[in-house]
Design a protein that fits this description.
28% of the residues lie in helices and 29% in strands. The protein contains 10 helices and 16 strands.
C-alpha cells in the first residue's frame, strides 16, 4: 500500500465463513469517478444479503476479499466530474448498486450520485442508514411491481423482518389492507406498524387462512412462494424476493392458477429513495432498530443476524 495515499478503516474478509472471518483493516480511500460521490459514512445497515455473501459460495460477489455493505447514510466528502444533484457537505442516504456495488462497511464509500437522496432532517444517520436496501425492496416490490392500490388486500410474509416491517408501512401508506405473518411474540409489534391482521405462521396454515389477497410479498423462496400462490385471488400477483432454481416452476404454477408471479431483485433508485425520504419526513415510515454496533464490532452484528430472530434492522455506526 502506498503510504502517501489517504486510507480508511474498513471491514473485509479473506475467506468465506462465519462472523469470525470479518476483520478491520486499513484500505486506500476510494476516489469518486464521473457521476459518483465520495461519502463519509456515518451509519451503514447490515442486511441478510451481507451475512449470506460472507458465508455462502457462488453468490454475486464471487470469492473474497471484499468489503460488504450496500446501505449507507453519511456526508458527501467530494463529488466526481459531472455531478449536479449534490455538493460536498450534503447529508445523503442511499443504496449502493446491488449486487455488485458493495462497500459501505467502511469509513468512506463511493457510488453513483443518483443512487442517493438527501437524508431527511427529521431522522439521524442510524435511522437513515437502516432504510435504503430494505425500504427500496419493499417499495419496488409493492408499488413498482405489484402496483398496489388503496383498498387492496396485501399479504406480507415475515412482517416483523427487515424488509417485512417496512413493507407493512409502505403498503399502509398506499391505503392497502395489510395482513402480516409473524410469530406470536411479534404480533403487537406488527400491529403497531399498522397491519390490519396478523397471523401466526407457526400455528396457522396461511395458504388456507388467506384466499383473497390481491398481492402477496414473499421472501422465503420458491417452495414457500408456490404454496403462497393459493392465497391470491384470480389475477392477483405474488412478488418473490428470492432468486433460486424454482423460478420456472413458480411461473408455471401461477399460470395454472390464473395468477401472476414475479421474482424481483432490488435496484439502486434515486426516485425511489426520494419517495422513501418523503415518507420518512411525513412520519409514515421508520425502521425498527434491532441493534447498533461500532464498525469494529461488525462480526457481532453478523452473529446476531445469523440467528434469524431479529425484529427490524441492524446498523453499524461508523462516525
Amino acid at each position: 500500500m502506498n503510504d502517501t495515499l489517504p486510507t480508511m478503516r474498513a471491514i473485509t474478509q479473506d475467506i468465506l465463513g462465519g462472523p469470525e472471518v470479518l476483520k478491520e483493516v486499513r484500505l486506500p480511500r476510494p476516489v469518486p469517478g464521473p457521476g459518483e460521490i465520495l461519502v463519509r459514512v456515518h451509519a451503514a445497515g447490515v442486511n441478510p444479503t451481507d451475512w449470506k455473501h460472507r458465508s455462502v459460495p457462488g453468490l454475486f460477489l464471487g470469492e473474497p476479499p471484499f468489503v460488504l455493505g450496500w446501505d449507507v447514510s453519511g456526508v458527501i466528502e467530494t463529488t466526481g466530474p459531472g455531478v449536479t444533484l449534490f455538493k460536498p457537505g450534503d447529508e445523503v442516504f442511499g443504496m449502493l448498486p446491488y449486487p455488485y456495488g458493495a462497500g459501505s462497511h467502511a469509513e468512506y464509500t463511493t457510488g453513483p450520485a443518483r443512487a442517493f437522496a438527501r437524508k431527511p432532517v427529521a431522522v439521524d444517520h442510524v435511522q437513515a442508514g437502516a432504510l435504503p436496501l430494505a425500504a427500496l425492496t419493499a417499495r419496488q416490490a409493492l408499488v413498482d411491481t405489484a402496483r398496489i392500490e388503496a383498498g387492496q388486500r396485501v399479504l406480507i410474509h415475515a412482517a416483523a423482518g427487515g424488509v417485512g416491517h417496512l413493507a407493512v408501512q409502505v403498503a399502509k401508506a398506499q391505503g392497502a389492507h395489510v395482513i402480516g405473518t409473524a410469530s406470536a411474540p411479534k404480533h403487537d409489534f406488527v400491529r403497531a406498524l399498522g397491519a390490519d391482521e396478523v397471523l401466526d405462521y407457526r400455528t396457522t396454515d396461511i395458504a388456507e387462512a388467506v384466499r383473497d389477497a390481491d398481492v402477496v410479498l414473499d421472501a422465503q423462496g420458491s417452495d414457500h412462494a408456490l404454496r403462497s400462490l393459493r392465497s391470491l385471488r384470480r389475477d392477483g400477483i405474488l412478488v418473490s424476493l428470492r432468486l433460486d432454481d424454482g423460478t420456472r416452476a413458480l411461473a408455471e404454477e401461477a399460470a395454472r392458477l390464473g395468477v401472476r408471479a414475479e421474482v424481483m431483485l432490488v435496484e439502486d433508485d434515486h426516485a425511489g429513495m426520494s419517495a422513501i425520504a418523503r415518507l420518512v419526513s411525513e412520519g409514515r415510515l421508520r425502521a425498527e432498530i434491532a441493534g447498533t454496533f461500532e464498525l469494529a464490532d461488525a462480526a457481532k452484528a453478523h452473529e446476531l443476524g445469523d440467528t434469524g430472530r431479529t425484529a427490524g434492522k441492524l446498523v453499524l455506526t461508523v462516525r
